[in-house]
Amino acid sequence: MSAEIVIYTTTFCPYCVRAKQLLKGKGAEFNEIKVDSDAALRREMSAKAGGRTSVPQIWIGDRYVGGCDELHELARAGELDALLAGR
Length: 87
Hints:
This protein is an alpha+beta fold.
């Protein structure tokens, strides 16, 4: 069973693109929530992310990952595959 992935993004954010490329490269499906022009969604994202307003903001299952750098660090540390698998 794989973990549900939620990623808040904006259209022209290079970090969002990098994070999505990494997830796609792992074969992971994700629920992308674009906050470009939706202030309510951005406030929702910020509240869930402890006040952070930058994108991307990523959750895998119940775990808040953070942004693109944190996602890539999980991959470098060899922890991302297990997290994606729901372990």
